[in-house]
Amino acid sequence: MLKNPIPPVTNKLQYRAIGIINGKFTPHDSEQLNRGFLIDNKGEKIETVVLGKALSLLKKHIDLKKSYYWVVYPKNKNTQNLHLQVSGIWDPYQLNEFPNDSSKTNFSKLLEELDLKDNYFSIRGELVFVNTQKKEIVIKLCTASKLKNLKNKNFKLVIKGELSLELLNSFVSLDISRVGNVLKLIRCEVIEKDLSKKK
Q1: Which domains does the chain have, with CATH numbers?
Q2: CA-CA distance, 2 to 122, in Å (whole number)?
Q3: pLDDT one-digit tens code per residue, 51-82
Q4: How far is Cα 21 from Cα 40, in angstroms, rounded to an integer?
Q5: Which of 26, 155, 165, 168 is 20 to 30 Å from the Cα of 39, by its Cα?
Q6: What value does the mean pLDDT of the chain take?
Q7: What is the DSSP annotation of 5-59?
Q8: What pLDDT is attached to residue 147?
Q9: Burial class (CB in 10 A: 0-12, 13-18, 19+), 123
C-alpha cells in the first residue's frame, strides 16, 4: 500500500497547510541538525526547521548529500519569505512498508498515482483578506484544538492569487504550487460560505 504523504481530509472544516518538496536539506551547523535550508532542484534555498519526529528519521536514515521528498508545513509573513517546517520524509521504499526495487524508483510517477506532484501544497482555512491590486490573498489557519491554550494557535499564510471579495470569511480548500519562495494559487474550492455567521 502506497502511503500518501498528504493524507486525506478527515473532516469538512479541517484546517491544514501541508506540502511536499523535493530537495536537499543542508543544516546551518553539523551539531544542530534541526535548522537549515531546503535547497530544491533549481537551487532555490528555503529557510527550514526540522520538527521532532522527522529529526530522528533525519539522523538515522538520511544521507544529506541526496535529494528526498520532504513533507512540510509552510509559514510566511509575505509572498517573498517562505519558511518550512519538516514534519516527515516521503520515501516509499526506505521508510515505508513497500517492496524495495530501487531500479523502478520513480518517485514522481508514484506521486502522480496519488494525484500529487513536487512543490504541491494543500491549504485549507478561512479566507480573511483579498488584495486585488497585489493579487494576493490571506488564509487564516487554526492549529489542532487540543492546543487551545497556546497563544499562537492561529497563523496566516499569504498566497499569490486572485479570489472574489465575496468569498471573504469563507472556508476554502486550495491547491497551491510553490514557485521559489512564493505560494501560488492553482485551484480553490469553497467548502463553506461565510463562517462569520456561525461564530
Answers
A1: 16-116 (2.40.50.500), 122-198 (2.40.50)
A2: 19
A3: 988 998 888 888 899 999 999 999 999 989 99
A4: 7
A5: 155
A6: 87
A7: SSPPPSSTT--EEEEEEEEEEEEEETTEEEEEEEEETT--EEEEEE-HHHHHHHH
A8: 47
A9: buried
- The arithmetic mean of pLDDT across residues 115-129, rounded, is 94
**E strand or H helix at 113:** helix 107-113
Higher pLDDT residue, 161 or 97?
161
Q: By percentage, how much of the chain surpasses pLDDT 70?
A: 86
In contact, 57 and 88? CB cutoff 8 Å = yes
Backbone angles phi, psi at 54, to 5 degrees: -75, -25
Cell of 194: 461565510
The answer for residues whose C-beta is within 8 angstroms of residue 52's C-beta and 6 or more apart is none
- 183/161 Cα distance (integer angstroms): 9
